[in-house]
C-alpha cells in the first residue's frame, strides 16, 4: 500500500527541497490541496521530483449540492478545470466533497440533485482518465445543514449510484461514530483512497497517528484483509506539525514494518 501526503500538511511555503524530502521519506505521491496559494507551483515541484499526483478538489464557496443554478455552474466549471489540469500532470484521482443541503429538511430533494451532478462530473472525469472519489464528511450536529455524505448509508448509495469511488477519511469516520473495519468491508471495491489522521473521536484534529485515539492502529490490517491497493494519504495539521515532524514519523513507521 502506498503512502501519500496531502499538501495541506506542508502549508503554503513549500519549496522544491521540501518535495524532495517528501519523496526521500518514502511517500509515493501527493494530493494537491487546490485552495493553496501555490497549488499550481506545487504540481510542478511534484512532477520534478517524480511524486505521483492526485488532487483534493476545491470546495470553499463551491457547493456541489446548491439549489442555486449559477453557483452550480461556477462549481462545475472550477471542478472540471482542475480535473483537466490534473490529467495534464498525469494525475489519477480527484477527491471531492458532495456539498451540503441548506437545511436538513431539504436533504431528500438535494440528494436527487446531487446524483444528477455526480453523473455530469464523472462524465468529465472519465474523459480525462480520472477517478472521482467522494469523501465522507462530518455531520452538522445541529442538523441545520446536511453535509453530503455524512452517514455511511447515504455515502454508499451515492457512490454505487454514480459508479464512482470513495475516499474514506478515517478521522471523519471516527467523529461520525462508525466502525472502521465494518465500513471498509461495506465499501469493498468502491474504496479508492484513505485519508489518514488521528483525533479524539470528537473533533477533526488531524493529529499524527498515535497522538489521538490511535484510529489508524489496525487500519493496515483491515486494508490488507479487504485487498485494498490504493493510496493512504496522510492529512496532517500544518498548524501543529512541521514537515519534519511528519517525515520523522514516517521513518519510524517504516522502521517498524
Ligand atoms: Zn476533504
Automatic annotation (TrEMBL):
The entry's keywords: Isomerase
Molecular-function annotations in GO: isomerase activity
Protein name, UniProt field: Sugar phosphate isomerase/epimerase
Keyword Nucleus listed: no
Domain Xylose isomerase-like TIM barrel residues, every copy: 19-239
Entry keyword DNA-binding: no
InterPro entries, A to Z: IolE/XylAMocC-like, Xyl_isomerase-like_sf, Xyl_isomerase-like_TIM-brl
UniProt xrefs under Gene3D superfamilies: Divalent-metal-dependent TIM barrel enzymes
Amino acid at each position: 500500500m502506498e503512502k501519500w501526503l496531502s499538501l495541506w500538511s506542508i502549508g503554503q511555503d513549500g519549496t522544491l527541497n521540501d518535495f524532495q524530502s517528501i519523496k526521500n521519506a518514502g511517500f509515493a505521491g501527493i494530493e494537491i490541496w487546490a485552495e493553496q496559494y501555490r497549488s499550481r507551483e506545487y504540481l510542478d515541484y511534484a512532477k520534478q521530483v517524480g511524486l505521483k499526483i492526485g488532487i483534493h478538489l476545491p470546495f470553499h464557496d463551491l457547493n456541489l449540492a446548491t439549489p442555486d443554478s449559477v453557483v452550480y455552474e461556477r462549481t462545475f466549471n472550477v471542478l472540471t478545470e482542475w480535473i483537466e489540469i490534473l490529467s495534464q500532470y498525469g494525475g489519477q484521482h480527484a477527491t471531492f466533497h458532495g456539498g451540503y443541503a441548506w437545511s436538513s429538511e431539504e436533504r431528500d430533494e438535494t440528494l436527487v440533485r446531487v446524483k444528477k451532478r455526480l453523473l455530469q462530473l464523472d462524465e468529465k472525469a472519465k474523459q480525462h482518465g480520472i477517478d472521482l472519489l467522494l469523501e465522507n464528511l462530518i455531520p452538522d450536529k445541529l442538523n441545520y445543514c446536511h453535509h453530503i455524505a455524512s452517514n455511511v448509508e447515504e455515502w454508499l448509495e451515492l457512490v454505487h449510484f454514480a459508479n464512482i469511488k470513495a475516499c474514506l477519511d478515517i478521522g471523519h469516520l471516527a467523529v461520525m461514530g462508525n466502525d472502521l473495519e465494518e465500513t471498509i468491508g461495506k465499501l469493498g471495491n468502491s474504496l479508492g483512497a484513505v485519508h489518514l489522521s488521528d483525533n479524539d473521536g470528537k473533533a477533526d484534529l488531524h493529529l499524527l497517528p498515535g497522538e489521538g485515539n490511535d484510529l489508524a492502529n489496525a487500519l493496515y490490517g483491515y486494508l490488507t484483509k479487504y485487498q485494498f491497493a490504493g493510496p493512504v494519504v496522510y492529512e496532517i495539521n500544518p498548524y501543529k506539525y512541521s514537515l519534519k515532524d511528519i517525515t520523522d514519523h514516517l521513518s519510524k513507521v517504516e522502521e517498524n514494518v
